[in-house]
Amino acid sequence: MVEKREFLSFQPQANRARFGRSPRSITRRGVLAWLMSLMCLFCLSSCSSSSSALPKNPFDSGNPAQTLVGGALTKTTEKSAQEIKTQASPVDGMILVEIPAGEFNMGKEDGSEGDESPRHTVYLDTYWMDQTDVTNAMYAQCVQAGQCSFDIKHAVTEIHYENPDYANHPVVYVTWYQAVQYCQWAGRRLPSEAEWEKAARGTDGRTFPWGRKAVDATLANFNDNIGDTTPVGNYPLGASPYGLFDMAGNVRQWVSDWFDALFYRNSPFQNPLGPGLGDKRVLRGGSFKDPANGVRVTTRFAHVPGSAGMNRGFRCAVSQ
Question: Where in the sequence is the domain holding 284, given as residue range(s)?
Answer without folding.
Answer: 68-319
